[in-house]
Amino acid sequence: MEIERKYLIDHPPAGYDSHPSRAIEQAYLCTEPVVRVRKEDDSYYLTYKGKGLMAREEYNLPLTREAYLHLLSKADGNVLTKRRYLIPLEGTELTVELDVFSGKFQGLVLAEVEFPDQASADAFLPPAWFGREVTFTGEYQNSRLSRL
């Protein structure tokens, strides 16, 4: 189960790019249900995500590079590229996943925070540098961006 909240970021915090990061490329084979392939640095995955906005099922299966490239060629829509920075959230055990997009969505920056349970997600108070919450609108779901 994945439980996360997502925010649009207008101004990332100073020094965000000094945190550990990963290069991500992903594309969608299907958006209902969500079936995605992802390259994360030198690792490859096939992911299934169930329905939902804040909480939903998620299963990741490892792929070989060859399988990833084969499935990538069958994907519909945009291939999304971004760099994900992992920023510890001060005073908590949570981590902000700050996605800085490149390619077609250059300039888009989103923050996601994953939670251990629904109560933690409901009680979360975002830091001041977070912008508008977009968790429940679905407008910035990566599967939706892939179709724009």
From TrEMBL:
The active site is at Y28. Pfam families: CYTH. SUPFAM superfamilies: CYTH-like phosphatases. Gene3D superfamilies: Hypothetical Protein Pfu-838710-001 (2.40.320.10). InterPro entries: CYTH-like_dom_sf (IPR033469), CYTH_domain (IPR023577), NeuTTM/CthTTM-like (IPR012042). Residues 1-148 form the CYTH domain. This is CYTH domain-containing protein. It comes from Candidatus Lachnoclostridium stercoripullorum.
